[in-house]
Amino acid sequence: MTKEEQEQEQIDNELENSQTSDDNTAKSHGEILKQQICEGQEVYKKSPLSILVSSFTAGLEIGFSYLLLASLFFFLHGKVAEDTVFKMLSFVYPVGFIMVIVGQSLLFTEQTSLLTLPVLNKKQTISNLLKLWGLVIFGNLLGGWAMAALLVWIGPELHLFDAETISKIAVHVTDYSMWVILASAVLAGWLMGLLSWVISSSKDTISRIFIIYMITAVLSFAGLHHSIVGNVEVFAGLLVPSSLSIGDYAAFQAVALLGNAIGGAVFVALLKYRAFVTNIKYN
Predict the structure, then answer these.
(1) Where, per UniProt, does this protein localize (predicted)?
(2) Neighbours of 246 (CB within 10 A)
(3) Which fold is adopted by the domain 28-281?
(4) Are 99 and 61 in contact (CB under 8 A)?
(5) Which of 137, 236, 269, 277 is the Cys-Cys partner for 113 at CB 3.0 to 4.6 Å?
(6) Between 232 and 7, where is the model more confident?
């Protein structure tokens, strides 16, 4: 057995021996890590069709956040200063995330760190990770496109919001340099990776809902770029008269996805995993 194999065996033994806490004790780092790796492995075991359907469902459901964003923006427009309105949207932004995450649909940004951990633990390959990411992203985007098309039609018909609202939100999301969007998306991916990690430490649904609401509200209030909600926001802007082009949409989407992936995979999965491994090596 090589030194690397011995180290991996030691890591796996430490994870296996991580104590399961009782209802009154907070979960340990090792216990959360073990749960995250196991959950990630379960996703890898699902059929491609199941993953595609689940991620498509998540893309649809996240659209309810956009429905509320646009409706609230339209309702408050002219009554409250526009910069204040954008901050107030953080009150309704988390709704779609609660539906998706509590409902166990596959959302790329919530799965990024989760799916990376089995690779770091040498249970999956980078190739498998990239294939799974691609499938989840495609399903999320497809669902988002469908929901955006529906809301662009039904919103004005129900007098919830108008084309100007759709255009303003889309321009607001994309009105930054690509470097700013990349850095913003890294922070957003970091937060979403932490969301997945912290949820694993909670023991009941109410706590999970509170955690989801708190973290995604912070994400919205800070104006950080989330690739899947942003997909609905910007794609909807393409479907109404606006200054956006398909090139603008493609550039935004590519940069936001890259930033979210870096944030979740590096700043959560890698750092959390290495903290556990380092603790083993030096104890």
Answers:
(1) Membrane
(2) 9
(3) Glycerol uptake facilitator protein (1.20.1080)
(4) yes
(5) 269
(6) 232
